[in-house]
Automatic annotation (TrEMBL):
GO terms for molecular function: 4 iron, 4 sulfur cluster binding; metal ion binding; molybdopterin cofactor binding; NADH dehydrogenase activity. One of its GO terms (biological process) is respiratory electron transport chain. It comes from the Bacteria. This is Assimilatory nitrate reductase (NADH) alpha subunit apoprotein. Keywords: 4Fe-4S, Iron, Iron-sulfur, Metal-binding. Its cofactor is Mo-bis(molybdopterin guanine dinucleotide). Residues 18-77 form the 4Fe-4S Mo/W bis-MGD-type domain. Transmembrane segments: none annotated. One of its GO terms (cellular component) is membrane. InterPro entries: Asp_de-COase-like_dom_sf, MoPterin_dinucl-bd_dom, Mopterin_OxRdtase, Mopterin_OxRdtase_4Fe-4S_dom, Mopterin_OxRdtase_prok_CS, Prok_molybdopt-oxidoreductase.
Amino acid sequence: MSDFLGHFRDQEQKHTKERIYPTQCPYCSMQCTMRLVEEKTPYTTRWKAAPNKDDPVVQGRMCVKGVEAHVHTLDHERLTQPLLRQNGRWVMISWEEALEWFQRRVKETQERYGKDAVGVYGGGSLTNEEAYLLGKFARVALQTRYIDYNGRFCMSSAATAANQALGVDRGLTNPLSDIPAADCIILAGANIAECQPTMMPYFRKAKGNGATLIAIDPRETATTKLADIHLRIRPGTDAALVNGMLKVILEEGYVNEPFLKQHTTGWPQLKTWIESVSTDEVAGITGIPRDTIVAAARSYGQAATGMVFTARGVEQHAHGVKNVRNFLNLVLVTGKIGRCGSGYGAVTGQGNGQGGREHGQKADQLPGYRLINNPQHRREIAQVWGIEEHELPQAGVSAYEMFQRVWEREIRGMVILSSNPVVSNPNATMVEEALDRLDFLVAIDLFLSETAERADLVLPGSAYLEDEGTMTNLEGRVIRRQAVRSLPGEAKLDWQILAQMAQVLGKGEYFSFSSAQEIFTELRQASRGGIADYSGISYERIEREGGVFWPCSDENSPGTARLFEDHRFWHPDGRAKLIPVPHLEPPEPVCDTYPLTLTTGRYMAHYLTGVQTRRTPALLKKAPEPLLSIHPETAKRWNVEDGQQVQVHSRRGSIEMKVEITTKIREDIVFAPMHWGGENGINRLTLPELDPESRMPAFKTCAVRLEPVIATLPTEGKERSDIDGKAQKVGVGR
Ligand SMILES: Nc1nc2c(c(=O)[nH]1)N[C@H]1C(S)=C(S)[C@@H](COP(=O)(O)OP(=O)(O)OC[C@H]3O[C@@H](n4cnc5c(=O)[nH]c(N)nc54)[C@H](O)[C@@H]3O)O[C@H]1N2
Ligand SMILES: Nc1nc2c(c(=O)[nH]1)N[C@H]1C(S)=C(S)[C@@H](COP(=O)(O)OP(=O)(O)OC[C@H]3O[C@@H](n4cnc5c(=O)[nH]c(N)nc54)[C@H](O)[C@@H]3O)O[C@H]1N2
Ligand code: SF4
Ligand SMILES: [Mo]
């Protein structure tokens, strides 16, 4: 027997064929590169992801999502052919039929209701080339003003704040390699350990060098565990906390007066405001003891170098822009910027969350971070695109507001590329109903996501292994992803789909690209002279140099790894802007009916709406279902036990979840992840209040109450229609 097994193994080894694909993880903004190994034996195919030690950013690290990233791309549920909904069933059709259908529906809709009756919705997983092309597709092929993307939910408050204060929004002002040189690091509303896990070694190294780490989060997380000081803030009160810290910094003399005088405006007004702040009041508002606020402020104030990072915990609020402005005040008042170990970072989320917001997917922007309402910028882009300036539409509205326009039937048709808005928007029930009101919906996706399931036409797009192009990581480093596998079935590259859709709309001449590189060449030209200038960056340079930082306006320029080294900010007067930021309460305060605050966020094992990671068995096993985290004292008060089902009610709706009792959370809040949709998706509860300046939704606070469910029904999940129209049960995991 053992002989037989030995022979079997020998045979297997002899016939094992190995192929190595150099690639990079599609998920978060770290964009870890790796070598994906396919081992084919006569009996099986095995896949293994090996880290890339030569990666200049992550130096051979990957997290659990990266190791498993290829799994969803190989899943048998991948879309492989266009699907058209006919009499409630999905029918497979050819690309010719799909494009002809699309052309007819757009024509009918636009002739009847005007060009703006068709909207476009994009995503931050797209390559720079595709993000650029999507913006051009909306403005040139459809000639609609309505385009926006999921990055509105992700980075827009930090982007607006950085533009206002510093004159430029590039997520991090410094390269990651500066972090170990920081003496004090503040992580505000940023759960790096679970959301950018391969960034953690930079912080560990800083700590090893003696840095103090301060984490601001209402929960204890894998990130706060590393912190020397953890400020367990009441959600929505970051601006107040920073006011308290600024007061200590002013009183104890850590203000950098010469820097403020030479390089900023607004300090006298800010100073007067800070003088009026009471740290005791701040302690009351934030729920953080005064002494802890003082300790944090001293630590940052006294440090010779320091870095402040903010993420969605600070930004996803009705006052997210102002929250970030106050953290920027903190950075500027102490002059900790523009040096190694001193700077600010809005931690970008999505794989191409950074590049995705630079090249025209946003309602108010054109490529190179140009503004669509700036006549000069319009002329520049119109010239690159070979159209008249007046043909360019004006600004549209933000992501969530597009669905309000759909609800109002102002937008009647929509194309969604690489996003799942029915799960990721606040007030998701309204968004779902709005989509059902559309005359037509086209979704370009890898799977029949919750959104694609509501579409009329579903087009099979490309996954990261199949699609080459550039991505811009959280540092502002432009990197290149190769295509290493062929597309499944009749799936097409996302940019090719856009080009073919433009072609049937009679605009093919503007989209006659034969490769991603050709699109990049045009993008470079379109970005020239803009804030996010890519004109000096080429595929060859990226390859040779391991990525190039923007702005880079010249093939011979090294790119700009650290911004503001000369302490000149990117406003016409070269000065950064300070403003007083008074505390404002979150828009939906708790009350007798809804006495708890719900905050939402992420699990390590899942990515965003989970369409990809819930199809990855190893990841699903790690986190099979969403749990409502609740403090033991709160659980007692609400009479719920660990593992029990509860109904969670908000003013928008009700969902059912299982409870997880944990001391790692404040008593006045509950926490839930965003990775599941369907009837019990958390965004059925969240508040559609938008920041007035960035139009980012307030995902991080809404008022809820709980109701224990006594008898629970089997948790089997809802029905969804199968490709051939047969109903199919889908388990809760999916
Ligand atoms: N595993 C995983 N990684 C991801 C993603 C994912 O889905 N899964 N998504 C990627 C994307 S697109 C993004 S945008 C990033 C998000 O990355 P993060 O912003 O770090 O993640 P979140 O969990 O949304 O929020 C961070 C923390 O904010 C805290 N918080 C809530 N309210 C407040 C508040 O009022 N003030 C403060 N100071 N903190 C608060 C939460 O408790 C949470 O721990 O992650 C990226 N990486
Ligand atoms: N309550 C709450 N809600 C939130 C947040 C929160 O913290 N709390 N965070 C918000 C944030 S920060 C974000 S970024 C949004 C994200 O929200 P979404 O954009 O809706 O989330 P994804 O899961 O990334 O959706 C991507 C979809 O595109 C598909 N896809 C992935 N890659 C490709 C590709 O290359 N080509 C094509 N054609 N399709 C592709 C996937 O299968 C999936 O269906 O959610 C927001 N919603
Ligand atoms: S999810 Fe982020 S940290 Fe994890 S492997 Fe992918 S890119 Fe790297
Ligand atoms: Mo995000």
